[in-house]
Design goal:
This protein is α+β, with helices and mostly antiparallel strands. The protein has two domains: about 100 residues, no CATH class; about 280 residues, YVTN repeat-like/Quinoprotein amine dehydrogenase (Methylamine Dehydrogenase, Chain H). It is built from six helices and 28 strands. Helix 1 runs parallel beside helix 3.
Length: about 400
């Protein structure tokens, strides 16, 4: 009964989130990361909002319409949007009234161009956005607008957690479907799918004479590479702790840095053999890594940013507060995103910490000129300058 109560509470919160844009609680976000049923419920709400918001008159619907439409949607076979004619049939039977502004979203809302942005990757002159909607939508944003999009599909509603660029390709970690997608941004196309047993916790890419490599860390604590034969090479070290859905992987200074947030460690591996060279106890729960000149930044989800030497030793610690889990670096500035609703700017030279409130920041990437792009969940994409001022945005589903 307790499990059912949790599902019900989270799904009620998801409906409020889609209806009003209310930020999900920390407990709901944690539950969502590990619950396929609730992710599917969120995807259903997103699909319903997107499909039904088409030329709708602004008339208040009957009281029971929302429950009836959702129930019809749940009972109709999926995937994709094959359920939506049944939902429309229910609405017609209720008197032909379908007002999505009153059903799920605020009055005056418009159909989304970016369904639920979760991961953003800079591809040079454009951005590739991966959304956690039922279709696993991939979108290319260029010049402030969406220029291409396609659905990536998947057995479960997608849960994209990480994206990296290697030359003209982008690799996206989909933890819900235990896979990494290799994507060509222009023209937008999925080139390959790499299965990763038990899901992906982290990714990094490195260039080289052989064309480069993509390293991954799996949810169960394995580290490996995606090779050219769509085969996964895994090295599992004795004693390497189990992790759940988020860790950092980074090639820097001749080492492959890997965080293990359950043990509070950063491990340094041999990039070729994947043998562990060194384990550094940094404490807290390190979840993300970025390279800076002469060192590495490690983000601790318990509210710290650490600078490590290229040998892994802790050189400096900034207390930033909250629970940030994504990190971007542009020159002398680090930008941290916290799904609780804040973006934090840290000056790496002065140590000054500054915060701004945003709705639901999921990911951040640096841009040319000192700015950053932030994937803001159902709100869309926000572009910030180095002073945290919003310079442009692309609307999402609200």
């Amino acid at each position: 009964m307790a499990g059912l109560d949790v599902h019900g509470q989270v799904q009620d919160e998801l409906e409020l989130h889609v209806e009003t844009g209310t930020v999900l609680s920390e407990s709901a976000q944690t539950h969502l990361a590990g619950c396929a049923e609730c992710r599917a419920h969120l995807a259903l709400l997103r699909d319903l909002e997107s499909v039904l918001l088409q030329g709708v008159p602004e008339v208040a619907p009957p009281h029971a319409l929302k429950a009836n439409v959702l129930e019809a949607a749940r009972k109709t076979p999926r995937p994709a949007r094959r359920w939506w004619p049944a939902a429309l049939g229910v609405a017609a039977a209720m008197g032909g009234l379908l007002v999505l502004g009153s059903l799920l979203t605020p009055r005056g809302a418009v159909a989304s161009t970016l369904p639920d942005p979760a991961v953003v990757v800079s591809t040079g002159g454009s951005l590739l956005i991966a959304s956690n909607d039922r279709a696993g939508t991939l979108s290319v944003v260029e010049g402030g607008r969406v220029t291409a999009s396609l659905g990536s599909g998947g057995r479960e509603a997608s849960w994209f957690t990480e994206g990296v660029r290697l030359g003209e390709r982008v690799f996206l970690a989909d933890a819900a479907n235990d896979r990494v997608l290799e994507v060509q941004p222009s023209p937008l196309k999925i080139l390959k799918t790499y299965p990763v047993p038990d899901g992906v916790a982290g990714l990094t890419a490195s260039t080289g004479e052989d064309g480069g490599r993509v390293y991954f860390k799996s949810v169960r604590g394995e580290v490996g590479t995606l090779d050219q034969g769509v085969r996964i090479t895994v090295a599992q070290e004795a004693g390497m702790p189990l992790a759940d859905v988020m860790d950092g992987v980074l090639l820097a200074g001749g080492h492959l840095f890997v965080t293990h947030h359950l043990s509070g460690e950063v491990c340094l591996l041999d990039p070729r053999t994947l043998a562990v060279r060194k384990r550094v106890k940094v404490g807290g729960m390190p979840v993300a890594l970025e390279q800076v000149r002469g060192g590495v930044l490690a983000l601790d989800v318990t509210g710290r940013l650490l600078r490590l030497s290229l040998d892994g030793e802790v050189e400096k610690v900034w207390t930033v507060g909250g629970h940030p889990d994504k990190l971007g670096v542009n020159g002398d500035v680090a930008l941290l995103t916290d799904r609780g609703g804040t973006v934090t700017r840290v000056s790496l030279s002065s140590g000054q910490v500054e915060r701004v409130s945003v709705t639901h920041p999921m990911d951040v990437v640096s841009l040319p000129g000192g700015g950053f792009a932030v994937a803001e969940g159902g709100r869309g994409l926000r572009v910030l300058d180095g002073d945290l001022k919003t310079t442009s945005s692309v609307e999402g589903q609200r």
